[in-house]
């Protein structure tokens, strides 16, 4: 299995933090030297391990923002 290369271009923020030290984070990440995309996933405290997540383009993130803003919470 090929190694996945990533670079966290910008740490946007932490959505939640577990007692284990893992955190659900929104970051701008370049995967395998490609154009950076917004990424929401769980990360270990030292960013050496990651969980499954979702990667979004800027247009998709804006559409998600609009959907969330339309919800009555």
Radius of gyration: 13 Å
Low-confidence stretches: none
- Give the CA-CA distance, first to last residue: 43 Å
Q: Quick check: average pLDDT?
A: 96
CATH class designation: Mainly Beta
How much of the residues is beta strand, in percent?
over 45%
**Strand arrangement in the largest pleated sheet:** 1-2-3-4
Number of domains: 1
Please trace the helix and strand order, writing H or E for each element: EEEEH
Question: Helicity range of the residues?
Answer: 10-25%
How many E strands? 4
Structural class: alpha+beta
CATH architecture: Roll
Model description:
By secondary structure, the chain is of the alpha+beta class. The chain is built from one helix and four strands. Strands 1-2-3-4 form a four-stranded antiparallel sheet. The radius of gyration is 13 Å and the shape is flat. The protein starts with 5 loop residues before the first strand and ends with a helix. The mean pLDDT is 96.
């Amino acid at each position: 299995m090929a190694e996945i290369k990533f670079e966290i271009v910008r740490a946007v923020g932490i959505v939640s933090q577990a007692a284990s030290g893992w955190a659900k984070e929104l970051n701008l990440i370049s995967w395998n030297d490609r154009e950076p995309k917004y990424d929401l996933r769980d990360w270990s405290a030292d960013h050496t391990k990651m969980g499954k997540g979702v990667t979004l383009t800027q247009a998709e993130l804006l559409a998600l923002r609009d959907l969330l803003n339309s919800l009555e919470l």
